[in-house]
Amino acid sequence: MKNTKFIDRYFESEKLLLNIEYTEQKTLNTLLTYLENLHSVGDKLKDKYQCNIKNIPEFVILRIIRNYFHHVDDIEDYSMFVEIEGWGIFEYNRHLIIPLKDFIKSLNNFINHTNQKYREQQIKLITEYIDNDIIDNIEEYLKINNILIDGEEYTLGIDIFKYVYNISNIIADKCRNINDLKDKEVIINLEKTYSECYNIPKRDFLGMPGNMPITTTKGFVFPKNHSTIQLIKESI
Question: How far apart (Å, rounded) are the C-alpha atoms in residues 134 and 149?
Answer without folding.
Answer: 20
